Amino acid sequence: MSDRKLTPTRQTTRVIAASGRLRNEHFLLTADHLLLEVDRSSFELVSAMAEGNVHVRLVAPDPEAEYVILARGALYQPYAARLSLNGCLGTRENGSTVPSRAGQHHMVVPTDGTFFLPIDHSPPVQVV
Q1: Which residues of 17-27 are buried (b: 16+ CB within 10 A; e: fewer)?
Q2: CATH, domain 13-113, list 2.60.450.10, 3.40.50.700, 3.40.50.970, 3.40.50.720
Q3: How many Cβ atoms sit within 10 Å of the Cβ of residue 31?
Q4: Is 86 helix (H, G, I), strand (E, B) or coil?
Q5: I need a labelling partner for 123 at 20 to 30 A (CA). Which of 17, 65, 76, 79 fits?
Q6: Are residues 29 and 74 in contact, defined by beta-carbon separation less than 8 angstroms?
Q7: What does DSSP say about strands 90-93 and 96-99: parallel, antiparallel, or unpaired?
C-alpha cells in the first residue's frame, strides 16, 4: 500500500450526457449520443462529443441550399472554432448524396462561417 495521499482538486467542468441536437449560428449537429462538457461556473460549453448517427447541417449563405456531412463521430471545440469529424460517410448536397472517398475518414470543419467563403476560379496572375 502506498503512503501517498490524494489531494482533492476542484472540478472546473461538468459532463452532461444527452441525445439530440447542438446548434451554432453556422451549423446544426444531430447525433444519437452527445456528451457536453460545460464550465461549472458559467455553464458555457467547453466541448461536445457526438457518437452514432451524426449529421452536421452547415448553414449556407443561400437559405435554399442544403449541405450535410454524415459521420460516425464528431468533436466540437467552440473556443478553437472547429468541428472534427471521424468516420466520415459522405455528404449530401441539395438532395444528392456523395459517399466519401476511400481513405478520407477524418475531416476538420471551421465553425466560424468560413467554410462557405466564395472561391475564386479565375486563372492565376502571371508575373513577368
Answers
A1: eeeeebebebb
A2: 2.60.450.10
A3: 24
A4: strand
A5: 65
A6: yes
A7: antiparallel
For 38, residues 6+ apart whose C-beta sits below 8 A from its C-beta are 13, 14, 15, 16, 44, 45, 46
pLDDT at position 57 is 92
| 31-60 per-position pLDDT tens digit | 999 998 888 888 888 999 999 999 999 887
To which residue does cell 446544426 refer? 28
C-alpha cell of residue 19: 441525445
Question: Which grid cell sits at 56?
Answer: 452536421
Distance, in Å, from the CA atom of 105 to the CA atom of 73, rounded to the nearest integer, reads 10
What are the sequence ranges of the domains in the chain?
13-113
